[in-house]
């Protein structure tokens, strides 16, 4: 069968089959509840691509065509599904008929006496036939969904075909979001913070940003305000001197100080910079509320740990100095031995 | 429509007939949709692009999982069975994937894709090519560029999983 697909799509591509004519008629007849004039380009959805009659992509494109057609006709929602069932049946029957026809044509071309050879019995000749992945890109893509970024990168190097499939933005997007950088979906300014050379409109931007993300450390952390739980956070270190492996599992904001005191003199440009994002959707509200609380009072928050001070920075001049124009929360870190600011709260 | 005792006749590409219980056959979403408004005791469904060998395998899968659900088979047992079921040569595995995709059996497609992903894991480009009999079709230049682009993969440490 594999061979059928492979041979069919290479050898018989010249036999142009304008498919979908019968199917289209069926659909139109049954869909007469709505306006039955199908625009040209809709038809072309069913008519292309020109796969050989008995191939999986061909069937797939017919099915997709049907689904696409249904989606574009909201008025069909009120009718019953009989026309869809009919067109599916027609599709199956038609495919069988065309498949047989294709086999006959093929047999006569290659002058092969037995039809069975084109069905499944040609294994003997060519046991190690290459797996024809190009025929089934969507399957390959599903396979790739289960790969790590490292394995996916290797897979891209296998062939042009694998490269094409393994470069799909959706795959890399998923890997980035798992990293976990969910805020990249919503916070445009974050891209600039991570790497100002990236062009967010580039479809490959997810793949390009991945190595940078993978090198950055992150931790889970619970944010408290005095003794009240605020939300669970993902803390990313964006910049500055490495904080090592350990990060407190809870940060408690006990003090605040005026944002005007927060300058590059106090937290220099090479000091560790953090980006906070809510761990889950449930944490969004808590974080948003906390940011608003700081903005309203024009304050930065402060959490003190043994040897470090964590400073919670709402959008302000300082965050813009550190190349962030967004609305989320940044964090600065001071080592206690080096701190130079007063506890002016 | 009584579904109990209903038989669906599935006909493979090479005209072999498989008689399958309704519940088993309709694990394929495609077949479930086709059968939706058919009420006869026995319905014949042609499966024009799956050969008998592969179709038998697919039906074996559906039958096991249909039963496993019915008798509440344990997760471990199902997992073990799945693992054994996937012990086939590459070509069969590939054909099962195509059939699962065509017949729309999401769990089987997933299982197969995970299996293939497991085969790719931790392999080099050359090993993967050998495994699937794929010929590299990049020019030397492209090949070098790819290697450079993917360099980060090897240098990357375990930092990814820094979370507790």
TrEMBL record, chain A:
Residues 137-178 form the F-box domain. Residues 1-45 are annotated as: Disordered. It holds the Pfam family SPOC. Residues 29-38 have a biased composition (Basic and acidic residues). Residues 219-318 form the Spen paralogue and orthologue SPOC C-terminal domain. Residues 19-28 have a biased composition (Acidic residues). This is F-box domain-containing protein.
Automatic annotation (TrEMBL), chain B:
Transmembrane segments: none annotated. Residues 144-164 are annotated as: Disordered. CDD domains: BTB_POZ_SKP1. InterPro entries: SKP1, SKP1-like, SKP1-like_dim_sf, SKP1/BTB/POZ_sf, Skp1_comp_dimer, Skp1_comp_POZ. Pathway: Protein modification; protein ubiquitination. Residues 151-164 have a biased composition (Polar residues). Residues 7-65 form the SKP1 component POZ domain. GO terms for biological process: ubiquitin-dependent protein catabolic process. Coiled coil: none annotated. Keywords: Ubl conjugation pathway. It comes from the Eukaryota. Residues 107-152 form the SKP1 component dimerisation domain. Belongs to the SKP1 family. This is SKP1-like protein.
């Amino acid at each position: 069968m594999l061979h059928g697909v492979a041979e069919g799509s290479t050898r018989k591509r010249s036999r142009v089959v304008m498919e979908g004519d019968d199917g289209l008629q069926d659909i139109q007849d049954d869909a007469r509840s709505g306006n039955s004039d199908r625009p040209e380009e809709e038809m072309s959805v069913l008519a292309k691509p020109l796969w050989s009659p008995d191939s999986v992509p061909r069937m797939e494109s017919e099915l997709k065509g049907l689904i696409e057609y249904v989606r574009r006709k909201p008025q069909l929602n009120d009718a019953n599904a009989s026309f869809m069932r009919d067109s599916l049946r027609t599709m199956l029957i038609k495919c069988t008929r065309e498949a047989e026809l294709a086999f006959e044509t093929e047999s006569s071309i290659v002058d092969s006496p037995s039809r069975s050879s084109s069905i499944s019995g040609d294994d003997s000749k060519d046991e190690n036939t290459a797996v024809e992945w190009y025929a089934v890109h969507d399957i390959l893509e599903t396979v790739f969904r289960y790969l790590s970024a490292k394995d996916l990168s290797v897979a891209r190097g296998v062939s042009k075909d694998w490269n094409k499939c393994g470069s799909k933005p959706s795959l890399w997007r998923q890997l980035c979001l798992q990293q976990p950088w969910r805020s990249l979906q919503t916070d445009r300014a974050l891209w600039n913070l991570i790497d100002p050379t990236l062009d967010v409109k580039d479809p490959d931007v997810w793949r390009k940003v991945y190595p940078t993300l993978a090198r950055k450390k992150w931790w889970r952390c619970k944010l408290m305000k005095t003794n009240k739980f605020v939300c669970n956070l993902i803390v990313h270190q964006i910049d500055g001197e490495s904080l090592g492996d350990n990060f407190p599992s809870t940060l408690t904001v006990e003090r605040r100080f005026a944002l005007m005191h927060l300058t590059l003199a106090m937290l220099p440009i090479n000091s560790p910079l953090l980006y906070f994002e809510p761990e889950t959707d449930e944490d969004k509200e808590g974080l948003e509320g906390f940011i608003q609380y700081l903005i309203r009072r024009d304050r930065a928050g402060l959490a003190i740990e043994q040897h470090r001070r964590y400073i919670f920075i709402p959008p302000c001049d300082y965050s813009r100095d550190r190349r962030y124009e967004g609305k989320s929360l940044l964090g600065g870190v001071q080592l206690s031995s080096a701190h130079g600011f007063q506890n002016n709260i | 429509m009584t579904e109990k005792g209903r038989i669906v006749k599935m006909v493979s590409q090479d005209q072999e007939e498989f008689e399958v219980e309704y519940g088993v056959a309709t694990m394929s979403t495609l077949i479930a949709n086709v059968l939706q408004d058919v009420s006869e005791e026995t319905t014949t469904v042609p499966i024009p692009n799956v050969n008998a060998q592969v179709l038998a395998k697919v039906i074996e899968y559906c039958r096991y999982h249909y039963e496993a659900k019915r008798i509440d088979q344990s997760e471990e047992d199902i997992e073990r069975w799945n693992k054994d079921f996937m012990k086939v040569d590459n070509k069969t595995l590939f054909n099962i994937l195509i059939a699962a995709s065509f017949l729309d059996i999401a769990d089987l497609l997933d299982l197969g894709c995970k299996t293939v992903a497991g085969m790719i894991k931790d392999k080099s480009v050359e090993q993967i090519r050998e495994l699937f009999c794929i010929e590299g079709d990049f020019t030397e230049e492209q090949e070098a560029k790819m290697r450079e682009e993917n360099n980060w993969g090897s240098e990357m440490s375990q930092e990814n999983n820094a979370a507790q």
